[in-house]
Specification:
Structural class of chain A: alpha/beta
Radius of gyration of chain A: 17 Å
Shape of chain A: globular
Strand content of chain B: under 5%
Distance between the termini of chain A: 38 Å
Helix content of chain A: 55-70%
Strand content of chain A: 5-15%
Number of strands of chain A: 5
Radius of gyration of chain B: 14 Å
Helix content of chain B: over 70%
Largest sheet of chain B: none
Oligomer: heterodimer
């Protein structure tokens, strides 16, 4: 099975809503030598982008989209035995959270997993973490990077408030703050205007930029 | 607080009221909408007005018109694929301008209009096409 075939067949399986078929495609691809990183970047990420576009074009419903998301989260979780095999190195620490009430957490989770593959130690907090609790954890655990995501504009003021809160709580010692998600696409300057240190369009770029910026 | 921050706060605090006022104004001036979309359409329209305000507010608060422009471009595509013409979205923004002006102090309204008009500006050529 080639990567293109894997992507097409995986997308067809999640559109059909068949978890069993989707898992089968992933297993087959893995046994055909397609690695974890390629599965994430060449199958899951593009498939979920296609799902978002199909919803926007009114070709699938919100229910279809949620089912596809749930299947992909489960497919990723099934690979965790592989991903976390061997105990892992104590690489740089990244704490990731979605901005406040943001509920689109799949993209950020993918970023975390791809960074894990690159030797990072990631803490993924997901959606709806209160700002003060996030700040408390950042103060206590002193990560190299805090990554925040927002898919839509209504969450942007909370991204800025979170960044401000972290910088205020740790004057001169704040971690690198990275932001991303659909709300930052097509506007390269927005991250900086909100007070972030960097942004990336996808998991590959995020991994590369963070590697450049964080030396351990 | 800046005028933009005050405007955004009011928009979100009175989201339901403003969304209802815009929806009522839409249907009042164009009764054909009810014939075309029915009661379900009116409920959807109200929800859409809420989304529009939810997306306008951060653009105004952050003084970031491109943020609203991107949403409007996205929203127009989404609505057209569901059979709603660009002119209806454009008209709803014009009516929203009236409703916001009626509720905001002049400096707050001015701050809000920068983003709102930037959104309208990309719709007008599309509506004429």
């Amino acid at each position: 099975m080639t990567l293109d075939e894997a992507r097409e067949r995986y997308l067809a399986a999640v559109l059909e809503g068949s978890r069993r078929t989707a898992f089968g495609v992933v297993d087959e691809a893995f046994h055909a030598g397609i690695g974890l990183r390629e599965l994430y970047l060449g199958v899951f990420q593009p498939a979920m982008r296609d799902i978002g576009r199909l919803w926007q074009e009114n070709r699938i419903t919100v229910a279809d989209e949620h089912l596809a998301t749930a299947i992909t989260q489960a497919a990723m979780a099934r690979l965790y035995d592989e991903l976390f095999r061997g105990g892992g190195a104590a690489g740089p620490l990244l704490i990731a959270a979605c901005a406040d009430t943001e509920r689109h957490e799949l993209g950020l989770r993918m970023i975390c997993d791809v960074l894990e593959m690159e030797g990072w130690d990631t803490v993924f907090l997901g959606a709806t973490v209160p700002v003060e609790d996030l700040v408390a954890m950042v103060r206590e655990r002193r990560p190299h990077v805090v990554a925040l995501s927002a898919s839509i504009a209504p969450h942007l003021p909370r991204v800025r408030a979170t960044i401000d809160a972290i910088r205020e709580a740790m004057p001169g010692a704040a971690p690198l703050i990275a932001v991303g998600g659909r709300a930052f696409a097509d506007d390269p300057g927005l991250a900086e205007r909100l007070g972030a240190d960097l942004t990336a369009a996808d998991a590959v770029q995020a991994a590369r930029l963070l590697k450049e910026r964080v030396s351990v | 607080m800046t005028p933009g921050e005050r405007a955004a706060t009011l928009m979100l605090d009175r989201l339901g009221e403003i969304a209802r006022a815009v929806t009522e104004a839409m249907y009042r001036e164009n009764p054909g909408l009810l014939a075309r979309y029915g009661e379900r359409g009116r409920a959807k329209c109200l929800q859409d007005m809420r989304y529009n305000l939810e997306h306008l507010a951060p653009a105004v608060e952050l003084n970031d018109p491109p943020c609203f422009v991107r949403y409007i471009a996205w929203c127009d595509e989404l609505l057209r694929s569901r059979g709603v013409p660009t002119r209806d979205l454009a008209r709803s923004l014009e009516l929203m301008e009236d409703e916001l002006r009626a509720r905001l102090a002049p400096d707050e309204a001015d701050a809000a209009m920068v983003s709102l008009r930037a959104g309208l500006a990309i719709l007008r050529p599309r509506a004429a096409a």
